[in-house]
Design goal:
Layout lengths: L9 H10 L2 H22 L1 H14 L17 H18 L1 H29 L11 E10 L2 E5 L1 E2 L3 H8 L3 E8 L7 E7 L6 E9 L1 H7 L3 E4 L10 E5 H7 L9 E4 L2 E11 L12 E4 L18 E7 L5 H7 L2 H13 L5 H6 L1 E7 L10 E2 L7 H28 L1 H13 L4 H38 L12 H24 L4 H5 L10 H34 L9 E5 L8 H10 L3 E6 L13 E5 L9 E8 L3 H4 L4 E4 L12 E5 H7 L8 E3 L3 E8 L14 E5 L6 E5 L4 H15 L6 E4 H7 L2 H35 L1 H9 L4 H35 L10 H28 L2 H5 L3
Parallel strand pairs: 2-14, 6-11, 8-10, 18-23, 20-22
Antiparallel strand pairs: 1-2, 1-12, 1-13, 3-12, 4-6, 4-12, 5-6, 5-9, 7-10, 8-11, 9-10, 15-24, 15-25, 16-24, 17-18, 17-21, 19-22, 20-23, 21-22
């Protein structure tokens, strides 16, 4: 038998003895033990222990809990009531300081709430999949001369091969969203209709990936929905759009990428907004051959591939085993193609398994066709939120310690009549918690009001989580933590006053802790100046990107989409476009220097040197005779394509990068091959056709006609009238199909939405940080004028000018701002240099950036303190001196 088996839980018994009032302890404990023993006999020990715990918790009430200072003192709850009463009185007595404390706190907390909601939304991406810990995306890694290139495209047979070769892989699936194969955007119409609708979100998807991701199915068989050729799965929102209130399975539609009808075989739930995959039309890959032999070809990379691992499989070990794919499938192909140094090439190829939950935020440096964020933005905005909150807390500390003289006599009297330091600390902490709770209430209202505007800034659709049970406890807990942390230093500082010194009037009026306040003001403005510099640099980089000479002219180019719906009339439509007086030129082609248009990947060699030279990876764009003129590209050597030269069908125009990589110092007349031999007739100046984050890659133009986009170069002064003329002409050729158009410069700008979004958010929170810091500076300047009122009056009586008084008061703060500038500049320079490293083409951080930020900080400081300083200089000295 155990020694203490007749006793209840030791922990809760000790807990009861700790909180119970000493006068009541013996009698209540006796009753508890007697009741416990009776329950043990009737109910058993386990249930008796449970009921004992409930009894102890129910005894946690004001009449039973022991006061902090022991049973001889007044009960804690009476003291708490008194503390709150004093706190409210001080809040109402000093309205301006209270408003700044609460208002500054509220702005800082509201900013933190908004950024927290943003971070929460970003971190939620792809966390909803069943068995998410078993889902991975395969990443293809290739090392070339020390440079590591990562991408997610694989050969058509890759997914099936790894599933068969590695038993650790339970399932493997793939999709193809490449615009070269007609995915991405296109036309759709019901089979009985004649008019097509433009839609985005088309993708080729295989049944294995549909099953692997376990996408919830509304209608249809989830295990076989994409098993048959010409099957199509659509999302719920598209089903409701085209087939309202009916089950669309079995209905047929016609897609622009294929003349044969597709049968709807299933309806899935919409992809969540926090998914890196965003598709609406899943076209089966069953029976698809984009060119003869494509599905068995190991030389063409077009398919992002996902796998589901069996439970317990170590992904790192599997990555090492997957190296055999290179030896088994790629090496023989390279040897057959007479590739040079194939063994070295094989060593440079490897694979990585990326958890599906990491794809959205941790894909920096990985080329892929899906949307994703950046974990660095999370850390960055999290840091901004923390700094804004710290600035708000600093205001509280500064104002509390600055106003110490006003509370000194109160503290002295309380100590003289018997209060100890812990009582005084408790009082000031209670006041701090009161300010914090009021600030949180106001902050929640501010955040809720500002959320729609923040969504516009961040391009989000975040909702305030009112319906989540954890919201209220988290906010209350956060308000208590913030209130305690911000109130600790003022509480211990104010409670440290010696009563004798205070009552003798020897306590310096608020200046005892001036050095600490100065340090905190420097921290506030250092943070604000860093944010100002960062905002200026971000906007300079955005301006540099949008206005850089790109090697082509993006302005005044209208892109007409869906031209393939014109059928054989596309060329006739173009010819009539050229007859319009407002149109300067026009070109038919889907390869454009903006994201989202057609791309491909090819390997090139100089003719006859395939077995000797290393291959050059590059793009091959199909364009018409007018493409280079329409885009106003600069031909450096040779000539453009000519309709009079029939041999141009086997000719190619290359960019400088292609000539450089192939080692062609005199490229005209040279012959290059990618399996097909081309004669080089011209060299075009390098132009940026992808993001400025990367370097310009090799590219060449060949003649081709099949396309869905017509680029129209128009006169800049007649855009509106030109659009009307183009629309009228479109109706002539396609009366049942609405025209769709966009502008090349706007499409180009959208490539950098993430940078512009970052700039907008940075600006907003930089303004908030400066606002909070300025509120604190305004209150401190008002306090300084209040404390130095008699000194200022004496100076005015003795003949001091308004300028001299203003200079005296302003200098003490301006010197703190100057110190902040000295500290902030090197930190901001280093941080923004690191940020700019992401861009191959970038702006320079010039001296003007730092001068502008410094002058702006000084202007803000002077504007903040000038009101109080000028008011002090203009006051009547008699009002201040008459009490002497």
């Amino acid at each position: 038998m155990k020694k203490n088996q007749d006793l209840p839980s030791k922990f809760f018994l000790r807990f009861f003895r700790w909180f119970c009032h000493p006068d009541l302890l013996a009698s209540i404990e006796g009753d508890l033990m007697e009741l416990y023993n009776e329950r043990v006999k009737k109910l058993g020990r386990r249930r008796a222990n449970l009921k004992f715990v409930v009894d102890v918790l129910l005894l946690l009430r004001p009449g039973i809990i022991a006061p902090i200072e022991g049973y001889k003192n007044v009960n804690n709850y009476g003291m708490l009531k008194n503390y709150l009463k004093i706190g409210f009185r001080n809040l109402l007595r000093q309205r301006m300081y209270s408003a700044i404390k609460v208002g500054g706190f509220a702005i800082g907390i509201a900013a933190c709430l908004l950024i927290t909601l943003f971070i929460r939304d970003e971190l939620s991406y792809d966390q909803f999949y069943d068995n998410a810990d078993q889902l991975y995306r395969v990443v293809n890694i290739n090392k070339d001369n020390g440079e590591v290139n990562k991408m997610v495209w694989f050969q058509a047979p890759f997914a099936n091969a790894i599933k068969e070769d590695f038993p650790e892989i339970e399932a493997a699936g793939r999709f193809n969203s490449g615009a070269i194969h007609g995915a991405g955007s296109g036309q759709i119409r019901l089979i009985e209709k004649t008019e097509s609708n433009y839609e985005e979100g088309f993708v080729y998807f295989d049944q294995e990936l549909l099953s692997l991701l376990n996408l919830p199915m509304v209608f249809g068989d989830p295990d076989h929905a994409l098993d048959n050729p010409h099957a199509l799965v659509i999302t719920r929102r598209k089903a409701e759009k085209y087939f309202p209130k009916v089950n669309p399975v079995g209905q047929q539609v016609v897609l622009s990428m294929d003349s044969e009808p597709y049968t709807i075989s299933g309806v899935i739930e919409d992809f969540p907004v926090n998914s890196h995959l965003q598709f609406d039309f899943l076209i089966t890959l069953k029976g698809i051959e984009f060119w003869p032999g494509e599905q068995s070809n190991w030389g063409s990379y077009n398919y992002p591939t996902y796998v589901r691992l069996r439970p317990g499989v170590n992904p790192n070990e599997l990555e090492n085993k997957m190296q055999s794919v290179v030896e088994r499938y790629l090496l023989p192909m390279w040897i057959e193609d007479a590739r040079t140094d194939v063994k070295e090439l094989a060593k440079n190829v490897s694979f990585e398994l990326q958890p599906i939950g990491d794809i959205y935020l941790y894909s920096e440096g990985i080329l892929d066709p899906v949307q994703h964020g950046d974990i660095r933005f999370i850390w960055l905005f999290g840091g901004v939120a923390a700094f804004i909150l710290i600035i708000a807390c600093i205001n509280f500390v500064n104002l509390s310690t600055a106003k110490s003289a006003n509370r000194a006599k109160e503290v002295g009297l309380r100590k003289a009549i018997g209060s100890n330091r812990s009582n005084i600390v408790a009082q000031f902490l209670t006041e701090s918690l009161l300010y914090s709770l009021l600030s949180f209430v106001l902050a929640i209202g501010l955040a809720w009001t500002m959320l729609p505007y923040f969504n516009v800034l961040a391009s989000k659709s975040i909702a305030f989580p009112w319906n989540e049970w954890s919201l209220l406890p988290i906010l209350i807990g956060a308000s208590l933590v913030v209130g305690l942390l911000s109130g600790l230093y003022p509480s211990f500082y104010l409670s440290s006053f010696e009563p004798i010194q205070v009552l003798k009037g020897k306590l310096s009026r608020g200046s005892k802790n001036a050095a600490t306040r100065n340090y905190l003001v420097v921290f506030q403005f250092t943070t604000s100046i860093i944010l100002i510099i960062a905002t200026i640099v971000i906007y300079q980089q955005v301006d540099f990107i949008l206005n850089k000479k790109l090697g082509f002219e993006k302005d005044n180019v209208i892109l007409i989409h869906g031209a393939n719906s014109l059928g054989n009339n596309t060329k006739n439509f173009k010819e009539e476009l050229l007859q319009l007086s407002q149109v300067k030129n026009a070109s038919i082609g889907d390869y454009l220097p903006i994201k989202g248009t057609k791309r491909n990947g090819n390997l090139f060699w100089n003719e006859g040197k395939r077995s000797i030279d290393k291959e050059v990876a590059g793009q091959i764009w199909e364009v018409d005779h007018d493409y280079i003129q329409t885009m106003e590209m600069n031909i450096l050597e040779g000539r453009d394509f000519s309709k009079a030269m029939s041999t141009d069908s086997l000719s190619v125009i290359i960019n400088q990068a292609m000539a450089r990589e192939l080692g062609l110092s005199d490229p005209l007349g040279k012959r290059i091959t990618n399996g097909r031999i081309y004669n080089v007739i011209g060299v075009v100046e390098d132009f940026n056709y992808e993001s400025l984050r990367g370097k310009i890659e090799p590219l060449c133009f060949v003649l081709g006609e099949k396309a869905s986009i017509i680029s129209v170069k128009v006169n800049s002064t007649e855009v509106v009238g030109t659009l009307k003329s183009i629309t009228s002409l479109w109706k002539k050729f396609s009366p049942s199909q609405s025209i769709r158009y966009s502008f090349l410069d706007e499409s180009y700008a959208r490539m950098y939405d993430d940078v512009q979004k970052m700039g907008r958010i940075f600006t907003a929170f930089a303004v908030l940080a400066i606002m909070v810091a300025s509120l604190g500076l305004f209150a401190l300047s008002a306090f300084m004028v209040e404390q130095r009122g008699k000194e200022i009056s004496i100076r005015l009586v003795l003949g001091a000018t308004l300028y001299s008084v203003f200079s005296m008061l302003a200098f003490s703060f301006i010197r703190l701002v100057l110190v902040s500038i000295v500290i902030a500049i090197p930190i901001a320079w280093y941080s923004m240099q690191r940020w700019l490293e992401d861009f191959t083409y970038k702006t320079d951080i010039t001296l003007g950036v730092f001068v502008t930020a410094s002058l702006l900080a000084i202007f803000i400081a002077l504007s903040t303190i000038s009101y109080q300083s000028i008011r002090a200089a203009l006051m009547n000295p008699v009002d201040s001196l008459k009490s002497e």
